[in-house]
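Pinned message: reference record for Ig-like domain-containing protein
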Amino acid sequence: VSLFPSTGLVQSDSVDQSPPEVRISEGQSVTLHCNFTTVDPSPYLFWYRQYPNQPPQHILTKTKFDVPDQTLAQGKFSASLHLGNKTVPFKIEAVSQQESAVYYCALRPTGGRTASPLVQKVSGGYLW
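Predicted structure (tokens):
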């Protein structure tokens, strides 16, 4: 996973993904890691996937309220929100060539109640 961190609009909110790149064989499972910093006691974290020349696709959302996973999740993808160490690991089961893409972790900003992709703090990387 190659990282392309963006600058945050609010200094207290940020996300960071590691490692820089992940290469695995088809059929294996992989966990992508995202660390976040926020002053919001109830953060919303999002995972997206983006293929070349395509817009990002929302995969799932995690909150402390444990909102059910939506859209693309359906057993293939899972994530858990750890507020104590401020991480939201993202797991892909039985990776296939179709999952080779840039994956983004995003944090809804504090002070707002809507999740606008234009103002989310985003960090991303490439899965081979």
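Pinned by admin. Summary line: The chain has a mean pLDDT of 75.
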